[in-house]
Write a structure and sequence with these properties.
single chain; mainly alpha; two-stranded antiparallel ribbon; 50% helix; 6% strand; globular
Length: 327
């Protein structure tokens, strides 16, 4: 098994980083905060679980569309969103008990309803020809619809090529590494990488999170029985660096910090964005090692889950804003 290129690339960036640095003292404080927390569990209430083939298709589409939920400035706000939202608020839907869902949970529940009520939407033929109007019927006024249409069509083409999602995942033979390699080989919009100091740095956020979703959905059994979960890194996105910055585990150059606080767009693939994401991956690795030394055996992706849950409670600093299909 070769080392995860995300882990290798992130460490290489952090050694050369000029705008984002890791603060050991803040990192240790955050680790102490996580130490007594119970092991994170898979949140299944918003996800679909049914027929195996349909469930696998659901997961493929879920993580193909799992990116950039905040509306960019200048994005035409719909007159009214789900749950009676006002103009300019985030895309949201109503959950099974009337709760307001945004982001990943809104996406997972929207697609769950589609799988339950319109399973043919997940066929190779439908996805390969899906239109913006089709997607709006399922997801409402979700932002960046053109990218999401392209991502859904890629899933349709993959399903047509492999005949079934079951056959596709079976090729991985229970390996997280192999699943990521298959996804990035066959789905171009899963190839989440950037050029930094003349070197390609992969992050593969959505490819890696699909492995965790597969494991969680199937309770670690059948196609969810994945032997090398420790190969996965953190899923570098918006929310984790926000938590790390808030906790003082990473430090941003004052100019960069001010830009983020003002809501300025950070270009995908820029020095700032790559350094933020690389520091996130390395910081989570360091926290996982810290917890391991104190008797808590968490994989890095489980530390990711713990930090993501912390990010949902409100933080004193904003997340960085990058318009991207990568995360």
């Amino acid at each position: 098994m070769r080392e995860n290129p995300v882990r290798v690339g992130a460490a290489w960036v952090v050694k050369r980083s000029r705008l984002v640095t890791i603060n050991q003292e803040g990192l240790e404080r955050l680790g102490e905060e996580l130490l007594p927390l119970p092991a994170p569990v898979w949140v299944s209430r918003y996800h679909f679980r049914g027929d195996e083939e349909l469930t696998l298709r659901y997961l493929l589409l879920l993580d193909a569309l799992n990116f950039c939920f905040w509306p960019p400035r200048g994005f035409p706000n719909p007159p009214k969103l789900a749950c009676g939202e006002k103009q300019g608020e985030r895309w949201a839907i109503q959950g099974p008990e009337g709760e307001r869902l945004t982001g990943y949970y809104a996406l997972s529940y929207s697609l769950r309803l589609a799988a339950e009520n319109c399973p043919e939407f997940f066929s190779a033929e439908r996805l390969a020809r899906v239109t913006a109007e089709d997607m709006r019927e399922i997801l409402g006024q979700i932002p960046l619809i053109s990218w999401r249409v392209a991502a859904a069509r890629e899933v349709g083409f993959l399903l047509a090529q492999f005949a079934s999602a079951t056959d596709f995942f079976a090729q991985a033979r229970g390996s997280a590494q192999r699943i990521v390699e298959l996804l990035t080989a066959h789905l171009p919009l899963f190839r989440d990488a950037a050029l930094y100091d003349s070197r390609w740095i992969p992050f593969y956020k959505r490819a890696q999170i699909l492995v965790a979703d597969l494991w969680g959905t199937f309770d670690g059994e059948g196609l969810g029985a994945i032997e090398d979960l420790g190969w996965l890194t953190a899923f570098a996105d918006y929310k984790l660096p926000q938590v790390l910055w808030s906790a003082g585990a990473i430090k941003l150059h004052p100019i960069l910090a001010e830009r983020i606080k003002k809501g300025a767009l950070i270009r995908r693939g820029s020095q700032e964005e790559v350094e933020i994401r690389a520091a996130t991956v390395v910081a989570v690795e360091m926290i996982a090692r810290q917890l391991r030394k104190k008797g808590r055996e968490f994989w890095p992706f489980q530390v990711d889950w713990l930090l993501w849950e912390l990010s949902q409670k409100g933080l004193p600093v904003p997340h960085h804003r990058t318009l991207t299909w990568a995360y």
